């Protein structure tokens, strides 16, 4: 089994219907995973060999090792 050592982020939904989308690495960026969160649900995500970006739609509180972000939607 390959060990994953990428950074983690924590996403807490402020409203129901928050969408979290994982985007692939490589020459063509593509969606590879989608999650829908209800209000107050928490998702812990990791950047990996396959995931280079994470897109968040909706009101959420995002915590990273670089700081915290609250979406304005």
From TrEMBL:
Per its UniProt record, what Pfam families does this chain match? TrpBP (PF02081)
Per the record's keyword annotation, is Transcription regulation included, yes or no? yes
Protein origin, superkingdom: Bacteria
Q: Does the keyword Endoplasmic reticulum apply?
A: no
Tell me which InterPro entries the record gives. MtrB, Trp_RNA-bd_attenuator-like_dom, Trp_RNA-bd_attenuator_dom
Ranges of residues in domain Tryptophan RNA-binding attenuator protein: 6-72
What are the protein's UniProt keywords?
Answer: RNA-binding, Transcription, Transcription regulation
Q: How does it assemble?
A: Oligomer of 11 identical subunits arranged in doughnut-like structure.
State the family named in the UniProt similarity comment for this chain. Belongs to the MtrB family.
Q: What name goes with this protein?
A: Transcription attenuation protein MtrB
Species, as recorded? Paenibacillus septentrionalis
């Amino acid at each position: 089994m390959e060990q994953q050592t990428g950074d983690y982020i924590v996403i807490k939904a402020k409203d129901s219907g928050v969408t979290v989308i994982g985007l692939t690495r490589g020459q063509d960026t593509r969606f590879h995973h989608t999650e829908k969160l209800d209000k107050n649900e928490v998702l812990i995500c990791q950047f990996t060999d396959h995931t280079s970006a994470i897109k968040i739609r909706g009101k959420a509180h995002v915590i990273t090792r670089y700081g915290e972000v609250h979406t304005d939607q």
